[in-house]
């Protein structure tokens, strides 16, 4: 008989793997590997995400890992930017390509005249010469392919050429208009020529399990995730959730008692934890899920209390005062507000070290 895992049990298992039951003292690159990537649509959120997970984390730790090329920021899961370890990027970039090819369909009529067999080699040649911004790449490609939409040219390069973003000394590691380099030129090795879907799914379970086939597909964007799980079934533990859906996990993976305490934590915008499952009740109630994204599809920063997303948060820095505003989905008990205020003040001191004062408020909506 298959054991059933409650939503609470899934919450604690996932938090344990995402380093959110207690801060861990491990090197930055090791943590990013354990998390199997950190979504990095914008440069600042990974710094906050790592601060919430690692004991003693400081921005220079991430800067160093980016500049020594231990970590890279590149297009990966769901065709979005992620921080990945260099070995993981090289191992799994090819597995992403079918999903990235499918993403090209969003171009619609703008893809008229776009010949990837010509554009991709031309782009590789430009980026092999030296790192370039996408404005440069588009302009140079437009000279060679004047009848093709310039945005379509740029998007094709992002989806079909393995690239990494070049870090700088900017506060959060990257400027607004960053340069891109070819992955092979930056890392001294090309991505593996072979897809590694089975290993990819195993690493997903290690970081986000127990999970269903739909969860794995949602996280990766790969339709092949379910097939990989079927091939791996003999090597996996199988459970059911409270709705009878099949869940897979690694044998011996951490599944803490569901009553293990979970501390208050602040997750940044686009955090992978709130995007890694089709059924996200293990982190956020269905009733609150629409509050996660804005009309322009930004993924809001959320705060956790007792393991679950209880609201969104935002900061403001003005006149040397750093302010954090909590916007709870529902009224919270005083104990929760006290714990969140203490964690929030620590977050403000990390994010705005020059502030003369820090303030945590609860918005009345």
Taking all residues together, what is the mean pLDDT?
Answer: 96
> What order do the strands of the largest sheet run in, or round the barrel if closed?
9-10-11-12-13
The helix/strand series, from N terminus to C terminus, equals: HHEHHEEHHEHHEEHHHHEEEEEEHE
Largest sheet: 5 strands, mixed
Shape, per Cα inertia axes: globular
**Rg (C-alpha, Å):** 21 Å
Give the number of DSSP strands. 13
Which blocks of ≥5 consecutive residues have pLDDT under 50? none
- End-to-end gap: 47 Å
List keywords for this structure.
three-stranded antiparallel beta sheet; alpha+beta; 365 residues; 38% helix; AlkZ-like; GMP Synthetase, Chain A, domain 3; DNA-binding; Winged helix DNA-binding domain-containing protein; five-stranded mixed beta sheet
Account of the protein in words:
InterPro entries: AlkZ-like. GO terms for molecular function: DNA binding. Keywords: DNA-binding. This is Winged helix DNA-binding domain-containing protein. This protein has 365 residues and is an alpha+beta fold. The protein has 2 domains: 1-263, no CATH class; 284-362, GMP Synthetase, Chain A, domain 3. Helices cover 38% and strands 17% of the residues. It contains 13 helices and 13 strands. The chain has helices at residues 7-17, 28-35, 45-51, 59-67, 86-103, 116-129, 134-144, 150-160, 183-187, 197-208, 213-220, 225-232, 334-351; strands spanning 38-39, 71-75, 81-85, 132-133, 163-165, 179-182, 236-240, 246-250, 265-267, 302-305, 308-318, 321-328, 357-362. The strands form 4 sheets. A 5-stranded mixed sheet has the order 9-10-11-12-13. The chain has a 3-stranded antiparallel sheet with strand order 1-3-2. Strands 4-6-5 form a 3-stranded antiparallel sheet. Helix 13 links the parallel strand 12 (321-328) and strand 13. Helix 6 (116-129) packs across helix 8. The longest helix is centred in the first third of the chain and has 18 residues, at 86-103. The radius of gyration is 21 Å and the shape is globular. The termini are far apart. The relative contact order is 0.14. The model has no long low-confidence stretch (mean pLDDT 96).
